[in-house]
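Hey, quick one: can you model this chain's 3D structure?
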Amino acid sequence: MQRDQLADFLRHRREAISPAEVGIADSHRRRTTGLRREEVAMLAGMSVDYVVRLEQGRSSQPSPQLLGALGRALRLSDDERDHLFHLAGHRPPPAEGVARLARAGLIRMLDLLRDTPALVMSDLSEVLAQNRASVLLTGDHTRHSGDRRYLVYRWFTDPAVRAVHSPDEQEHHARHIVADLRAAAGRRSDDPAVAGLVDRLQAASADFRRLWAEHEVAVRRADRKTLVHPRVGRLVMDCETLVTPDQGQQMLVLTPANAEARERLQLLLVLGNEEFPTRAASTPTR
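Sure thing. Here's the predicted structure for all 286 residues.
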C-alpha cells in the first residue's frame, strides 16, 4: 500500500469533481473547489473520519469493496480506478467477469437522470450502482455480498423479494430473469463463475430448476411492471434497458407509465431518505 501516493491521488480527484457532477447543489459559500470530504463520505457510504485518514495517509488498508465505493463516488475512469487499486495494494477487478465495477460513463448518466430511477447491472444481475431515486423506489441493492448480490439468486431464494410485484406478474418476471441468465450463460460458456451460479441456483430452488429446464432465452429489453411500494402504493413503471457494446453491463431506467405513477413517484422523492423497509426489499424491474 502506497499511503502517501494514495492520499495525494484521492485529494486531487476529490478536488477535481464539481458538486453538480454528482447531483449536489452548489453553494456560493463553498470555500474549496471540488467536493468536501463529508460529501465523498456520503457518496461512498463510509465515515468522514476514514476519508480524512485516507487523505492524510494514516488509514488501514482499504478493502476492495471500499475502493469500489470510492471509485464510484469520485467518478473514476477505468484507468483511474485500476490505479486506485494498485496504490492501495490490491489487484484491480478483472475487465471481464462478474467482479466488475460500473463504468464511469454509466455512473455519470445516473447522476444526470436524478429524479428518474435508474441502476446499472452486470449481465449476471448484480446491481453495480443506483441513483437516489432508484434506492428510494426499490431499496439499496448494492449492499449484498456472496450469491445474494445477484438479483436472480435473491429472487429464487428469498420470498420477500417477490412481494414488490403483483402476484399475477411474478411468473412472467421469473421467466424473464431466467431467460436473461440463459442468454448470458450462452455468451460466457467458458466462464466458471456463470456455471457455478447456475449450479448453486439449481441446488437452492426447485422453481429455478423448472424454468431453467425449459431453455427459454431472451435478452433484457423494454418492459412494463407494477411495483407495490410500502409507502406510496402501486406504481406502473416502464423499464428501458441500455446495454454496453460488449453486453457486459446494462442500465435500467424506470419511468412512470401514467399520471398516477408519476404523482406517487414525486411523493416518494419528496418523502426523502428514510430507510427502505427491509420487509419490502425488492428487485428492479426489467
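One thing worth noting: The first strand starts at residue 118 and ends at 122.
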